Amino acid sequence: MRRLAGVRNREIRGVAAALALVAAAALAAAVARERVEREGTVTDRPAQGARDGYESSSACRACHPSEYASWHASFHRTMTQIASPETVAASFDNVSVSDVVGEFMRLEIRGQQLWAEFDDPDRVGAGGGVEPRVARIRRRVVMTTGSHNQQIYWYATGNSRVLGQLPAIWLTADRRWIPRRAAVMRPPGPPHAETGAWNGICVACHTTDGRPRLDAPFGSRPIADQIADTTSAEFGIACEACHGPGGDHARANARPLRRYWLHLTGRADPTIVRPDRLDPRRSSQVCGQCHSFWEFADAASERRANSFGLPYRPGDDLTATRLVVQPTVNLESAAMKALLADDPAFVRDTFWSDGMVRATGREYNGLIDSPCFRKATDPKRTLSCFSCHTMHEDAGDARPLEEWRDDQLAAAARDNSACLQCHDRGPERAAPQERAAPQHVADVDVARAFQARDLSAHTHHRADSSGSVCYNCHMPYTTYGLLKTIRSHQISSPSVKETLETGRMNACNLCHVDQTLAWTAEAINKWYGRPAPPLAPDDESVAASLVTLLKGDAGQRAIVAQSLGWAPAQRASGTSWMAPYLALLLDDPYDAVRYIALRSLITLPGFETFQFDFIAPPQTRAALRVRALQTWRDARASSSRRVDAALLFNPDGTFNAPAVDRLMRERNTRRVVYRE
Amino acid sequence: MLGAGDWGLVASYRGAGIGTELQTNYAQRHLRFGWWSLLLFATLGLTLETLHGLKVRAYLDVSNETRRLMWTLAHAHGTLLGLVHVAFGLTVKSAALDPRALNVRAISSALIAASVLLPGGFFLGGIAFYGGDPGLGVLLVPFGAMSLIAAVFMIARAT
Predict the structure, then answer these.
(1) Cβ pair A395, A388 in contact under 8 A
(2) What whole-number distance in Å separates Cα of residue A231 and Cα of residue B23?
(3) Phi first, then psi: what are they for A52, rounded to 5°?
(4) A308 touching chain B per CB within 8 A
(5) Please, which residues bridge with residue A176 across strands?
(6) Which residues contact A99 (CB under 8 A, 6 or more apart)?
(7) Torsions phi, psi of A129, nearest 5?
């Protein structure tokens, strides 16, 4: 027995030694790894951490792996990240960036840290150039914004947690740097510093429960005189941004019996908000808390938000704590008047004259002015964000997450099914008040057409054509942001009258880009019985797209430029005539318009390899525009010619230059500044 | 290797304990159970690998992470318990147990119960589940775990 005991002791010692070895190896591995900065020790940038009932997404993962995975793949998560070699889309490995105003921006990686040397944006002169003795600074890049279309980089200024913005941003699709100003719809001008903007503005929506905690609300005092203790519960738009603080939920559901009781009874868990179970109006407000233009009700609200963050929590009434801008409804309110006193061009730059929002990222403003939302009386037939979008990919959706995350559309909302959730019902199944509602006159038409399996009866286009896609007619690409146009989220029907009154291109002419407004008015009158409004001579004789492209403001030009590169428009209207007009826009004063024009131009036959730098100096751009025209002329000689007068060609195929010049002289040259 | 003094224990075990025939029966039973378990759960392992190979979404999708975990646990526990059965069968066969502390019938039953309840509970828990929570079949697991611990305790006491 003693001998057996000896054997056992030796075994125990052996096991203990093995365990000690494993522990030592693990410790050594941990020490050998690059030391990760702990949030508690960070003082030069905003910090994140669980507090006030917020737990962070990591607490959600164990119970909701599928939802966590789809959120993790989303661009919501990566809206704000701590900068590191893994999170930056651009290379920082000893890179010199020339696409900035002034001296090159130099980037480098030191271990896990990213550093940049550049002209101090806060010292750049206001006259369009750089001060003669601009301060050259070297700063650590600590945060990033965005990853889908663009990525913006923020550096630690050295003043508390105040962040400054690098003078160039990374364009994800083009894989190139561009000056910050070229990434937004702004007239030409000097670069502008955005120091402190992250702390004062971005933190509200690009993080979860962000709190600026500046000495005074952003913009009320020079940022250099402010100290910031900016914090957030979690960087990025995380679970709790939409579900509310999850601390109580996590604690309550640590008890398995409670979880299984909820699983088996299917009851709602009162400890957490499920936006998809809210009333459609409240559920849309969850998205609207960020996807809208809004204003503080008063100065006191702004001061409170500066200290304690925005008071809105998912499930609350959004309008109880802020004013959602609706020019058709609340233009005369005290908050709007205060806003307009501060920024008189705000409404004009942000909304079409009929109140439809024209900047992207503010889809809630469009939703609440849509008839499907505004006039709806039945919650089951009320348009909400979740009618089309889903924040977690549906279980049956075969698309990879990388594809789904682009627009986060539900699988069933990618085609006409989205609208047929409601519009497949005839009047006999609608409530009496709905039957009387004007918007449901069209429902009857749509429903009958679908019941007869004859979509063309409603659309007057082939059922399998892009003209029979609900989105294309009722959500055309008339909002702009991030160097592209996206679909309007205010459901509407094509209207020539609205085009005349607002300058907003109608859906018909965004696809039939070779047709006049008169042609559209006649078609709408013939098909839907709406009378044609009186038209100006140009609207009778010149394609609506060209009238807008030549005469419109920068925002309108951007919309037409993108439309000329849109495949359905090219199929419907032909492409042989488009190049000279896109070439004209290659020399547009606005960087954003030039960028979109180039992107459309290279979709045309013969231009696939056309090289053009949209931020090149004006003389270079002019030369390249001439080359684009020459390319068009060369290609056109051998192709079928279109000599329509409506496209401003003479019968002999030459360009009607006087008409083009006349329309350009009538151009709306007002300053256009989008709040993107 | 047993020492000279240990052979006396074996002799007393044979004399006072379960007897050679019964001992052989139990040894055979657990060897048979163990090897068949190994066959079953090795086959399950092969099936799971095939699901990986064919990228079957019902097994590999993130939304099925709980199923993947449960079935992996079923495979692992079933296989290891198969080995435990084989080891127990060999132990009984070699008569290296203290007959005074041995209740081979109880050990045998507990081990078999563990081999059914543990992997079975995990497997059932992965068929239908609730997000990160396994299905109700997983309720079998704690009973299986208690059976296993009881069996191991009884074996440990008898060694």
Answers:
(1) no
(2) 70
(3) 50, 45
(4) no
(5) A171
(6) A168, A176, A177, A178, A179, A615
(7) -115, -170
Could you tell me if A567 lies within 8 Å of chain B, comparing CB atoms? Answer: no
The model's pLDDT over A332-386, given as tens digits with 9 standing for 90+, comes to: 999 899 889 988 999 999 999 999 999 999 999 999 999 999 999 999 899 999 9
CB contact under 8 A, A67 and B131: yes
Separate counts of helices (H) and strands (E) for chain A? 32, 17
Query: How many Å separate Cα A460 from the centre of its chain?
Result: 32
At B82-128, the pLDDT tens digits run 999 999 999 888 877 766 667 888 999 999 999 999 999 999 999 99
What single letter denotes the amino acid at residue A133?
R
What distance in Å separates the CA atoms of residue A407 and residue B20, rounded to the nearest whole number? 73
Strand partners, A323: A295
Burial call A85-109: b when 16+ CB within 10 Å, e when fewer: eeebbbebeeeebebbbbeebbbbb
Query: Which residues 102-141 in chain B show a CB within 8 A of chain A?
Result: 130-133, 136
- What gap in Å lies between CA B30 and CA B42, rounded to an integer? 17
Helix (H) or strand (E) holding A170: strand A168-171
Q: What is d(CA A316, CA A674) in angstroms, rounded to the nearest whole number?
A: 29
For A626-676, the three-class secondary structure string (H helix, E strand, C coil) is HHHHHHHHHHHHCCCCCCCHHHCECCCCCECHHHHHHHHHCCCCCCCCCCC
Q: How crowded is the C-beta side of A93, counted as CA atoms within 13 Å? A: 4
Looking at residue A385, its pLDDT comes to 97
Instruction: Quote the minimal CA–CA distance from B73 to chain A in Å.
Output: 17
pTM recorded for the entire structure:
0.86
Q: d(Cα A315, Cα A277) in Å, to the nearest integer?
A: 10
Torsion of CA A537, A542, A543, A546, to 10 degrees: -110
- B132 and A64 within 8 Å at the Cβ level: the answer is yes
Asked if B53 is an interface residue toward chain A (Cβ–Cβ < 8 A), one would say: no
Q: What is the DSSP string of A228-267?
A: B--EESEESS-HHHHH---HHHHHHTTSHHHHHHHHHH--
DSSP output for A531-576: PPPP--HHHHHSBHHHHHHHHS-HHHHHHHHHHTT-HHHHHHH-ST
DSSP A174: T
Q: Which of A318, A339, A342 is nearest to A330 (CA)?
A: A339
* A355 residue type, one letter: G
Burial of A380: CB neighbours in 10 Å, binned 0-12, 13-18, 19+: exposed
Query: Taking the CB of residue A124, how many other CB atoms lie within 10 A of it?
Result: 21
User: A325, A294 in Cβ contact below 8 A?
Assistant: yes
DSSP assignment of A211-225 equals B--BSS-TTSS-GGG
Nearest in space to B140 (alpha carbons), one of B159, B123, B154, B155? B123
Distance (Å, rounded) from C-alpha A455 to C-alpha A424? 11
> Which of residues 54 through 93 in chain A touch B, CB cutoff 8 A?
61-67, 69-70
Q: Which two tokens stand for residue B56?
A: 């079957």
| CB pair distance less than 8 Å for B66 and A1 | no
Q: Report the gap between the CA of A389 and the closest CA in chain B (Å).
A: 19
- Residues paired with residue A143 on neighbouring β-strands, in sequence order: A82, A154
The dihedral built from the CA positions of residue B2, B3, B9 and B14, taken in this order, carries a sign that is positive
Count of other CB atoms within 10 angstroms of residue A129: 13
Report the C-alpha gap between B159 and B146 in whole angstroms. Answer: 20
Do residues B81 and B69 make contact, with C-beta atoms less than 8 angstroms apart?
Answer: no
Helix (H, G, I), strand (E, B) or coil at A503: coil
Half-sphere exposure of A353 (CA within 13 A, CB side): 10
| Separation CA A494–CA A492 (nearest Å) | 7
Tokens of A271: 């400890």
Q: For residue range A434-481, what is the model confidence (pLDDT) as tens digits?
A: 444 444 445 556 666 665 567 898 999 999 999 999 999 999 999 999
State both tokens at A112.
Answer: 């896990």
